[in-house]
Amino acid sequence: MIDVQQLLAGWPRGRWGIAAAVGVTATFFLTALDTLQHYHFGFLILPVLLGLARAFALAAVFYQPQVALGVSLAATAVMAPLSAPNSSGEPWPWTATAVFSYSIVLALAGAQGMPRRELLNWWLAAQAFSVVTVIAAVVLGFNVGWSTLVVMALLSAVGAGVGDVLRSATETRSQLAVQETITEAERSERSRLQERARIARELHDVVAHHLSVVVVRADSAPHRLSGLPDAVRAEFAEIAEAARSSLAEMRRVLRILREEQPDAELEPQPGLDQLPELIAAHREAGAAIEVDAETVADVDPAVQLTAYRVVQEALSNAVRHATGAPIEVEIRRTASMLVVRVRNGRGTTATVEGTGHGLIGMRERVELVDGAVTARPTPQGGYLVEALLPLQEVTRVDPRADR
Question: Where are the domains of the chain?
């Protein structure tokens, strides 16, 4: 069921409990006093019961709108025949409290999501009750005020109309929230796919270099090594041809990726030796960056490229979301891992809300080299990005493949 509080979320939640308690209590006392003015049979329990009924209707409308409207209408139906003998020219069968109470319950029922047709049915039920009751009273010779019917019809129509407007607004808001969730998921997926395409283009240079070396060495082996048997020469020729075919296939795939993103350009891809230039560019922009990096010149180019992109994205996030905060970049090499850490402190200005797409792309990159990345807040109020990149070959060969 739709919560009316979501529509008026600007009011602090704690005040809704106070407002509801005041409304229910006021309804009880006003109904009791109003009933005493029209009921003179000496049974004081009736005003109390009617007050409780209308107070219950006001509270129950947030949970069971149909029950609340039924109780509110039933309370008036009970009051009408008992107060008719003393209602010469007075508002009847709806007292002022009854009119406002029923109209408010109608509005709240609509705000809780009651369909327009059901609101209309309850409005018609109240008008039908009014007309039938007044006609019966006139037939029996009572002098009742017809103006009450007009007032009741108008005020309850306003209540139903307000409820329908609130329902429509709440449903629209819910639909927009669902659409926003879908749109955000689509943006995340698109960002992930775009990042994969970008990674593929960047890794092309790395893999193409290795394949080119294989082709050159396989072609030149018969000339560099004398006395090779014909079978070995043929083997080297097959190796060179396989490498050429792989290189051609990779370039074909790359052309497809470039057709999907025509603005993409082939250019040398950065490694950790370009890290000082990246740091310098951020320092010129005002960032305070401390670097503690080990020499990793012999690390695989694909791993270096991934490490560079992790640092690049982490620095961009730190500058964007924690302006003015000190930043620490640490690169460590263990026996089997390249460890990249980028840590920033608490920013001096308000943070800018991000989409999380940068972290998605970062995770895609790291997973392609069989690594792992974590991004989390620090106890000091800053943020830490840590990537663990394996140094061993990421390509795995099934030992059973040759069997």
Answer: 4-182, 187-260, 272-390
